[in-house]
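The authors assume throughout that readers already know how a fold can be written as discrete tokens. What matters is that the chain and its backbone geometry are given together, residue for residue. A single example would do more here than another paragraph of explanation. For illustration, here is how one protein appears when written out as sequence plus structure tokens.
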Amino acid sequence: MESTLLQDYFLLRPENLLFVVAALMSGGMLLWSTISGRSAKEIDTRTAIQLINYKDALVLDVRDDSEYADGHLPNSKHIPTEKIAERWHELEKFKDKPIVVIFRSGVRSGHASSVLFKNGFVQVHNLMGGIDAWRRANLPIVKR
């Protein structure tokens, strides 16, 4: 009984309250994304290749124009993340197909994926590590 009181005392101290709240919020957000099923699945380069080759997945590059010009996946569709909310309708014919979102950092792909989910796309995948992972795997990059 005494150890429980000590544990409660340390847990509820004011200086620990911020950490407890942060931990509860983080856990809740993870649980919500798992339960809702509305978050994009993170995939590696091998899975991306399989989706592209065998499931006719669309590759959606959401990086900015200069990053895209520096090199992108063959046959990728380019819509910068800041324009995805106004241009998602261009992807309407791909609603039932897998979409592999390419980015440089996770923030942009998360935003683009959430816009797509909100508009009825169900098979949205984020490439773990983005374009850098693709390059590290020595996979094809084109410049146009």
Q: What stands out?
A: Residues 66 and 80 are 10 Å apart (CA to CA).
